[in-house]
Amino acid sequence: MHKTGAEARDHVARLRVLLADAPPAAEVAVCPPFTALEAAATEAEGSPVRVLAQAVHEAPSGPHTGEISAPMILATGAVGTLVGHSERRAAGETDDQVAARVRAALDAGLQVILCVGESLEQREAGETESWLDGQVRAALANVVPADVGALAIAYEPIWAIGTGRTATPETAQAACALVRAVAAAGLDPGAVRVLYGGSVTPENAGGLMAQTDIDGALVGGASLDPGGFAAIVAAAGP
Fold first, then answer.
1. What string of DSSP letters covers 83-129?
2. Over the stretch 12-51, which tens digit does the pLDDT of each residue have?
3. Of 38, 57, 58, 85, which is the active-site residue?
4. Which one of 38, 43, 58, 156 is the catalytic residue?
5. Cα dihedral sign for 220, 221, 223, 227?
6. Phi/psi of residue 189, each to 5°?
7. Using one digit for the tens of pLDDT, what is the confidence trace for 103-144?
8. Maximum CA extent, the chain
9. Active-site residue flag, 64
10. How far apart are CA 4 and CA 150, in angstroms?
């Protein structure tokens, strides 16, 4: 919940300049609040920056006060959405809703970044593997191989979000490899894109994205600084 429309527009304008020499293969997106989507998308036109929403409802319209539908997101000029972010799940979003929202977004032509991850309590109890397995399988219940090009899966360990605690590259690699393996039960493992998100910074981004099963980053607080975010993009490689 950061940035008004004007602030988001200025943010994207700064990124346009900073990302002029970004790695050609890097895909870059920002996810502003609903009220800033159109301003950000307009400013991003013709730049490497894509604009995605932070959440989506599964219904195209109806009595769902405070929600936003896939057609509404598309109408702003945004091209995708997050689904199942840990903060949304903590607010009550269920596995069934996540699965329905992934399907609705894909059907509407939106790109999807699906978020999964475990809490500190679950990790300390040795439940990481079973928890991630269940979340990924549930979220992809309605996904078919043809959808893989529009889908990325972000592993965001809840215990490392905004806490300053970051999974070591090895820990992040192990979790992302698991996510890829579970997703591969119904999708091409080579085509599945897996991101890591959990206190990613310019200092640790390179080590994280050098891992075999980490294709990119879902950046939180560090994305609020255009210079820092551009540095993370640069760490994605040549």
1. ES-HHHHHTT--HHHHHHHHHHHHHHT-EEEEEE---HHHHHTT-HH
2. 999 999 998 888 889 999 999 999 999 999 999 999 999 9
3. 85
4. 156
5. negative
6. -60, -30
7. 999 999 999 999 999 998 999 899 999 999 999 999 999 999
8. 48
9. no
10. 28
Please state the domain extents for the chain.
52-234
CATH 3.20.20.70 fits 52-234, yes or no: yes
The DSSP annotation for 6-72 comes to HHHHHHHHHHHHHTTT--TT--EEE---GGGHHHHHHHHTTSSEEEEES--BSSSSSS-TT--BHHH
Cα(232)–Cα(28) distance, integer angstroms? 10
Q: Report the percentage of the chain scoring pLDDT > 70.
A: 100
| Residue 85 annotated among the catalytic residues of the structure | yes
Instruction: Write out the two tokens for 42.
Output: 């307009």
> In terms of pTM, does the model score above 0.70?
yes
